[in-house]
Structure formats: structure tokens, C-alpha cells
């Protein structure tokens, strides 16, 4: 996504005492889930600076290869936060490279006193053994009965990703359709589980190999 033409803001700069006294609006604090493991502070700042004045931000790198990193971006006003959420929720970003593939981030207002990490409340499903005859419409038809689909992608090799609006909707899909045969012309049961960064990394490597 290009931020060309967007207003560019810079963090507020003041003396140490005024910074310590700064109050932060909790409704302007954006929680960013699903960042690539090799993302960093500078990339997080660059991604969000076009949407408003940033008071503080934090990138938390995952130490577990199967889990994504996450971050927080504190804007001055809720309007700025909502502007960023509207524009970037579901947006795919890259880390520093290395064949890791894209990660599609999830944005929301950070819960006050948040204790759960993004990896604890996943909404993105990884699907194997998808019938070769399926297209995006058929994929949405089968999984759409479990909730609101915000994003879907068929990657080839009978693999697809489906992202739901909530964790509970994704969990319902797993509980009802995992290891079930859903197509009479295909005897293989669907394998449905929560997607991890490792799944996406494998996908990126696979796509690179097929393009060479």
C-alpha cells in the first residue's frame, strides 16, 4: 500500500518532564498482530507515520519461529488510530527479506491491561487437501457458514488460507470441518488448523521455488 499524498507527521518532541507527564488516550492505542518475525522498530514506525502523530510505539519480536511478532502504536487521537486501522487491517507486509513471504497484519484498539498475545487469539486458518476444483467462491461458501470471512487466498498445491473476523468463528470452523470430507468427488478430508508464521514461511519458499 502506498502512503504517497498522505499527511506526514513526526513524534512530539519535548523535554523529559513534559514527556513523562504526557497522558495517552487508550482509544488511540493500536495493537498490531501478525507482524513478520524479522520486522523491526523502524519499519513499524514507517508503516504508521502517515496516519497521524505517533507519541510512542513498540515492536515485540517473537522468539518462537511458529508465532508472529506484534506491536503497539500510540496515536494522539482515536481518529488517527481508526484511520490507520481502516487502511492497514489485513494489509500484507514484508520483513527484511530472506524468503519469509508476506504476513497480513491484524489491527485493533489495544485492550487496557491486555495480557493475551496475538498468537493466543488467531483468526487465520491454514487449509490442506482443498479440492482442486475449488475457487475462491466455493471456498467462501464452505467456510462462510461459520462466520464473517475478512480475507481468503488459494495458493495452489491444494492449500488455502481463510481469515475470520473473530477467533471464535475460526475455532468453530476447525471444530466442524477439520478432517471432514466435504466434496464427494474428492476422498481426502480437509485439514484445517490455525495458520502460523511457519506455514506462511513454507508458502513463501514454495512460491519462490515454483517461480524459478
Keywords:
212 residues, 6 helices
Please outline the helices and strands.
Layout: H1 16-20, E1 29-35, H2 41-48, E2 54-60, E3 69-75, H3 78-88, E4 92-93, E5 103-104, E6 106-109, E7 124-128, H4 136-143, E8 149-156, E9 159-164, H5 167-177, E10 191-194, H6 197-211
Antiparallel strand pairs: 1-3, 1-6, 2-3, 4-5, 7-9, 7-10, 8-9
Task: Characterise the protein shown here.
Helix content is 27%, strand content 25%. The chain is built from six helices and ten strands. A four-stranded antiparallel β-sheet has the order 2-3-1-6, with helices on one face. It is elongated. Residues 1-21, 97-101, 113-120 and 204-212 have low confidence and may be disordered.
Query: Strands across the major sheet, in which order?
Result: 2-3-1-6
Q: What is the SS-derived class?
A: alpha+beta
What gross morphology would you assign?
elongated
Helical percentage: 25-40%
What is the string of helix and strand elements? HEHEEHEEEEHEEHEH
What is the CA-atom radius of gyration, in angstroms? 19 Å
How many distinct helices? 6
State the major sheet.
4 strands, antiparallel
Please indicate the percent range of residues in DSSP E strands (runs of 2 or more).
15-25%
Brief rundown of the structure:
The protein has helices at residues 16-20, 41-48, 78-88, 136-143, 167-177, 197-211, and strands at 29-35, 54-60, 69-75, 92-93, 103-104, 106-109, 124-128, 149-156, 159-164, 191-194.
Amino acid at each position: 500500500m502506498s502512503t504517497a499524498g498522505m499527511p506526514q507527521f513526526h513524534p512530539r518532541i519535548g523535554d523529559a518532564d513534559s514527556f513523562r507527564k504526557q497522558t495517552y488516550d487508550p482509544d488511540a492505542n493500536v495493537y498490531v498482530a501478525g507482524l513478520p518475525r524479522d520486522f523491526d522498530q523502524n519499519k513499524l514506525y514507517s508503516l504508521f507515520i502517515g496516519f497521524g502523530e505517533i507519541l510512542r510505539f513498540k515492536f515485540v519480536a517473537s522468539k518462537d519461529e511458529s508465532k508472529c511478532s506484534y506491536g503497539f502504536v500510540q496515536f494522539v487521537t482515536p481518529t488517527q488510530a481508526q484511520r490507520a486501522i481502516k487502511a492497514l487491517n489485513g494489509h500484507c507486509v514484508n520483513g527484511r527479506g530472506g524468503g519469509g513471504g508476506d504476513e497480513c497484519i491484524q489491527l485493533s484498539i489495544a485492550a487496557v491491561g491486555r495480557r493475551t498475545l496475538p498468537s493466543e487469539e488467531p483468526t487465520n486458518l491454514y487449509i490442506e487437501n482443498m479440492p482442486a476444483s475449488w475457487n475462491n467462491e466455493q471456498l467462501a461458501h464452505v467456510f462462510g457458514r461459520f462466520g464473517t470471512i475478512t480475507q481468503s487466498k488459494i495458493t495452489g498445491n491444494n492449500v488455502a488460507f481463510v481469515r475470520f473476523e473473530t477467533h471464535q468463528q475460526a475455532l468453530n470452523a476447525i471444530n466442524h470441518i477439520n478432517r471432514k470430507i466435504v466434496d464427494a468427488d474428492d476422498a481426502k478430508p480437509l485439514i484445517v488448523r490455525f495458520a502460523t508464521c511457519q506455514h506462511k514461511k513454507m508458502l513463501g519458499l514454495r512460491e519462490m521455488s515454483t517461480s524459478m
